[in-house]
Amino acid sequence: MSEHILEAHTLEEHEALIPQANWFERSETLQKLRKNKKFPTIWCSGCGIGVVMGALIRAIDHLGLKNDDVALVAGIGCTARMPVYMDFNTLHTTHGRALAFATGLKIARPDMKVIAIMGDGDALAIGGNHFIHAARRNLGITALVVNNAIYGMTGGQYSPTTPVGGKATTAPYGNVEPPFPVCELAIAAGATYVARSTVYHALELDKFLAEAIAKDGFSLVEAVSYCHTTYGRLNKLGTAADMMRALKDNTIAKPTFDKLSAEEQAANTKIVRGNFVNIERPQYTNVYSNLITRVQGGEK
Amino acid sequence: MAEVAVVPGQPQSAAPPVRKGPRGEVVIYATWCKGCHICVEFCPPKVLEMGPSDNHPKVVHPEKCTACHFCDTHCPDLAIVVRKLE
Question: Looking at the complex, does the CB of residue A15 fall below 8 Å from at least one CB of chain B?
Fold first, then answer.
């Protein structure tokens, strides 16, 4: 595989060629990239989605899953370009319908680890209906929602997770709609594993993604990212590195948050990151196969 | 596995480690890099610096690297590989 990546990596004159033994073999991340894909990625310079992609590859690598046992389903958007660069089974679907296609795939192949990769608009606006119903059924799907608070690919329209007061191209005087709390929505809809982390806390994201993929039930991981080219530019939040530093400063870990008093918790404006829910409920494909066995056996 | 393109910098492992603890070696794939400065701004021991003319970082202080893996886990373009030295 490494030779293919090397072929995709075209050399330039200013690069010195130094023989180094087994660089690619030592990198877990580069091993799982798609063999013959043109790199670099299409994302803007410094976009956090690439960090999430690295975290997802490391999480799958940590679980020791084979490439053929994992299916990535994605819709439309910046985030949904992610499966294009990874060497797993991939399904590129219509806007917002990643979870709908993933539902069919999971029911047809219950042995497969199905991961639906969505952006915030993809998951909550266009595909909001599929999102709550996949959580209600408790299908064994991992939903990875990369939340950058804006529709990046189409030019910076405000999305269901844009904060109140945040400027967007369709909200030039500031957004007036309250945002969707993604994790709380999933908990209320019945998800069995819900966690939130940011692209700054990439190793924590690895851990949550590995736990979510291993979980037999609907699991949601919200990866808080940023869009510095539209949201950051309109709201004067600086470069990609500045926005990543802001994620470091404006988040609070859940154990720390739980120790705060009730007044402090109510006044908290920081993003709480951590594992919110980890419960057991009957998983849909198990219930369904039990039903098939029962009915075919002639029982009522 | 033949050859890997590396940004020209100072020769690796030229100076002996100045303090105890793990050491690392950084390789940057310049053609995958888009020059977002994240690795340069966050590197704790300031191993990396942006090149004067090229739009990608260079390893200017290889002896300071402690193999903390911040740069390779946070590189959005997966253009950095850090190897822990024995």
Answer: yes
